Amino acid sequence: xxxxxxxxxxxxxxPLTVGDLNFDSELEQRVYSQLLIMPSIxxxxxxxxxxxxxxxxxxxxxxxDFTVHLKLGSVLYADAKSNPTETDVSRIKFKLFxxxxxxxxxxxxxxxxxxxxxxxxxxxxxxFEEVDSDNTNP
Length: 138
Hints:
The chain has one domain (about 15-130): 3-Layer(aba) Sandwich (Trna Endonuclease, Chain: A, domain 1). Helices cover about 35% and strands about 30% of the residues. It has helices at about 25-35, 90-100, 110-130, and strands at about 15-20, 20-25, 40-45, 50-55, 55-60, 65-70, 75-80, 105-110. The strands form 3 sheets. Strands 3-6-7-8 form a 4-stranded mixed beta sheet. It has a two-stranded antiparallel ribbon with strand order 1-2. A hairpin with a 4-residue loop joins strand 6 and strand 7. The chain is globular and about 40 Å long. It starts with 15 loop residues before the first strand and ends in a 6-residue tail after the last helix. The model is unreliable at about 125-138 (pLDDT under 50).
């Protein structure tokens, strides 16, 4: 595991503030900026916390970097991770999140292509519904 000796941060990331938003790293801020310009995304929440409870016992908590609200109402979860920051613990937490909530936590930018495809399908589905509901179209 990569460790940083000079910084208090485990992975040498430097927190970044842009306006009134606080990001844990420059990568997180860049991914956030990319999400905001995607036409299928309505809004993005930062660091929403979820308790992972099994049989009434809290095991841990997970805090995906992004809760992404799509225009059609779907919600996706994503986390900005580079290779060194994708640890065994984060993988286990995301698998437990998926098991408990039925939602995948997308790892960005590694899975950005698939994530964009999923969002794009959301837009295409919306456009098809609009055409189908148009009574003037024979």
